[in-house]
Write a structure and sequence with these properties.
The protein has 477 residues and is α+β, with helices and mostly antiparallel strands. Helices cover 30% and strands 25% of the residues. The protein is built from 18 helices and 23 strands.
């Protein structure tokens, strides 16, 4: 989707979900703006499902929110309940059939599901559905979840949702639409964030608080792990879904995924990222003339580094923020230009300078080297790369495309070898201890498997993880 170059080196964003129950409101339009605020979490497809109390309607398509929706296709989405989704696929190919939300009819009426996360017992659940004669149209685990809900025992949706939670193993933050109610569900481990806020005439839920603020919600708070939130004409109720497990919030929500103006666990992401940069400056000081960021997610960390190191902060790269917003593919000459399609250096700023370049992570390393070369061609005398997270040495199986072991540069090479390969004068990663000091929370609250290789509930999903270690073939919402 959009321009593809040979220099993509970011872990792919988790998906974003949104839901609203608000009688008398144009809920599809509100959901559109909620998804617009979550666009950073997924750029491959977008969709909205709406219920009016009698029937449910759906529109979804490949593309950005602004490409998928217009006045003509929003108009038929009439009702007082809506859910929405923006998607970045993990292993399931970028196909329209895997776009979300999923919507189908059941014995209890229509049901729609939007999912952020990834299950690790997908194959077991697939085989269980096949054994009961249920066919599947995709490899997306969200389709598995909606089919399980449609066929689960129980005469009420909360009972069926609890049944699903007893079977599903892995990361899932869900918004669920039924004929008369909206449900928000967070897995017992709390891998992915999910928040709720009050509207003037209803309630909204979203992957991040920034989306709730965008649509004017107040009294915003996080939904606790293992909880089912039910919203209907009787108001809001929290229902126990599954006993909370050991907390495993993905640490990359702080480092990269979440928008800087979102709050997670009571902390503003922008401030946490500045703290990451400050810790990085303490651990890896360097004599330099300029601190700059690889825009945009590393900007707060670069500001923190500059403040702590007492080195001027400035922009050395200008990012073309629309380069991924076209369906036109570059020709061979432009494809070979690679990183220059996305970034343009400010030569007058860089000329003759010793530059500290702050980035949030290195995954494959195939973006870092072109950036270093670009800065040198623009006149930088020295290029010192500083990373506001530890080395990523292990794949993720919880819904983030971290690449395979063979692709992860820090798994294959030492820090010095990575530095030599990308052509920097020096390279420094933030330590695990420095990262935890910055987030001001104990390691026990987070999933840090991509750094440590210690996977949550590996004893229950070890076969899946061993099977995927070479392929990383996980399919999530």
């Amino acid at each position: 989707m959009g321009i593809q170059t040979q220099c993509i080196d970011k872990q792919s964003e988790a998906c974003g979900v949104f839901g609203i129950y608000a009688p008398g409101t144009d809920v599809a339009r509100v959901t559109f703006f909620g998804l617009y605020a979550l666009q950073h979490r997924g750029q491959e497809s977008a969709g909205i499902a709406v219920s009016d109390g009698l029937r449910a309607t759906l529109h979804k398509k490949m593309g950005l929110v602004s490409q998928v929706f217009d006045e003509d296709n929003l108009a038929p989405l009439q009702g007082h309940i809506a859910i929405g989704h923006v998607r970045y696929s993990t292993a399931d190919s970028s196909r329209a059939i895997s776009a979300q939300p999923f919507l189908l009819e059941s014995a209890l009426g229509p049901i729609g599901v939007a999912h952020n996360g990834n299950l690790v017992n997908t194959e077991e659940l697939r085989q269980g559905l096949f054994a009961h004669g249920v066919g599947l149209a995709s490899y997306c685990d969200t389709e598995i979840m909606i089919q399980m809900l449609a066929g689960a025992p129980g005469d009420a949706w909360p009972e069926r949702i609890r049944h699903l939670m007893s079977k599903a193993l892995g990361a899932y933050s869900l918004t669920i639409l039924t004929r008369n109610a909206l449900y928000a569900v967070r897995d017992p481990w709390g891998f992915r964030p999910l928040s709720i806020g009050r509207l003037e005439n209803g309630w909204a839920v979203a992957s991040e608080s920034c989306a709730l603020q965008t649509v004017g919600a107040t009294e915003i708070r996080e939904i606790e792990p293992g909880v089912i939130v039910e919203i209907d004409d009787q108001g809001v109720r929290e229902i126990p879904g599954a006993d909370p497990e050991k907390s495993n919030l993905c640490i990359f929500e702080y480092i990269y995924f979440a928008r800087p103006d979102s709050h997670i666990d009571g902390q503003l992401i922008h401030e946490v990222r500045q703290s990451l940069g400050r810790e990085l400056a303490r651990e890896h000081p360097v004599e330099a003339d300029l601190v700059m960021a690889v825009p945009d997610s590393a900007t707060p960390a670069a500001i923190g580094f500059a403040l702590e190191a007492d080195i001027p902060y400035g922009e050395g790269l200008i990012k073309n923020r629309y380069i991924g917003r076209t369906f036109i593919q570059p020709d061979d000459r432009l494809r070979q230009a690679g990183i220059a399609l996305k970034f343009n250096p400010l030569s007058q700023t860089l000329e003759g300078k010793r530059v500290v370049v702050v980035d949030d992570s290195i995954v494959r390393g195939n973006t870092s080297r072109p950036i270093v070369e670009l800065l040198r061609r623009a006149g930088a005398r020295e290029v010192h790369l500083r990373i506001s997270s530890p080395p990523i040495k292990h794949p993720c199986f919880m819904g983030v495309d971290m690449a395979t072991y063979d692709e992860l540069i820090a798994h294959r090479l030492s820090v010095q070898e990575v530095c030599e390969q990308i052509g920097a004068d020096s390279l420094g990663y933030l330590s695990m201890q420095g990262m935890l000091r910055a987030v001001q929370r104990p390691m026990s609250r987070f999933c840090v498997a991509c750094f440590s290789g210690e996977y949550p509930f590996e004893e229950r999903a070890g076969g899946f993880i061993r099977e995927c270690e070479g392929m990383c073939e996980v399919v999530g919402g």
